[in-house]
Amino acid sequence: MFDWLTETLAGKYIFVFFASMIPVTELRGAIPIAAGLGLPLIPSAITCVLGNMVPVPFIILFVRRIFAWLRRVFPKVDGVLSRLEGKAYKQKALIDKYKLLGLYVLVAIPLPGTGAWTGSMVAALFDISLKRAFPVIFAGVATAGVIVGALTGGVVALL
């Protein structure tokens, strides 16, 4: 049914664009997926950066309201939501000490538990405005894209 997603060039780009929007894969997983699909590194990295940025404004603007609504309507999800918030609050020392630079570092380092989703939640929970957070998160995602792209390109070149 969705064979065209991995068989056509446009479908491959659409696939990695959406893969980079997902919180588990984000850009860190989508760039290697793009390489596995045979896409050139730079256009696919740009596609992944753009895809990774799509959820950012929505998270910053609405995550608190969504969490409050979910807690009210589905009280059993409170534990999961509390863990997600706890993950963001673990970054408090980094943000308190370095402010926007700390947010940049949090997003730019391509490790598990970092990235645009976590950075956006941190921005929302620490009341960093979309206007201030978005460019910082974009810079962090672009930096992570360069790092992951360089690592992926090096691995592909070795193979």
Explain what you see.
By secondary structure, the chain is mostly helical. The protein is 78% helix and 0% strand. It is built from 10 helices and no strands. The protein has helices spanning 4-7, 9-19, 26-36, 41-53, 56-73, 78-89, 92-98, 100-108, 116-125, 130-158.
Measured distance between first and last alpha carbons: 32 Å
Mean pLDDT: 90
Fraction of helical residues: over 70%
Number of strands: 0
Indicate the structural class.
Answer: mainly alpha
- The fraction of residues in strands falls at under 5%
> What's the order of the H and E elements?
HHHHHHHHHH
Please give the radius of gyration in angstroms. Answer: 17 Å
Distinct helical segment count: 10
Q: Major sheet, described briefly?
A: none
Q: How would the global form be characterised? A: globular
pLDDT < 50 stretches: none
Question: Secondary structure elements and their pairing?
Answer:
Elements lengths: L3 H4 L1 H11 L6 H11 L4 H13 L2 H18 L4 H12 L2 H7 L1 H9 L7 H10 L4 H29 L1
Helix pairs in contact: 2-3, 2-4, 3-4, 3-10, 4-10, 5-9, 5-10, 6-9, 7-8, 8-9, 8-10, 9-10
In short:
This protein is mainly α. It has helices at 4-7, 9-19, 26-36, 41-53, 56-73, 78-89, 92-98, 100-108, 116-125, 130-158.
Question: What key phrases describe this protein's structure?
Answer:
159 residues, mainly alpha
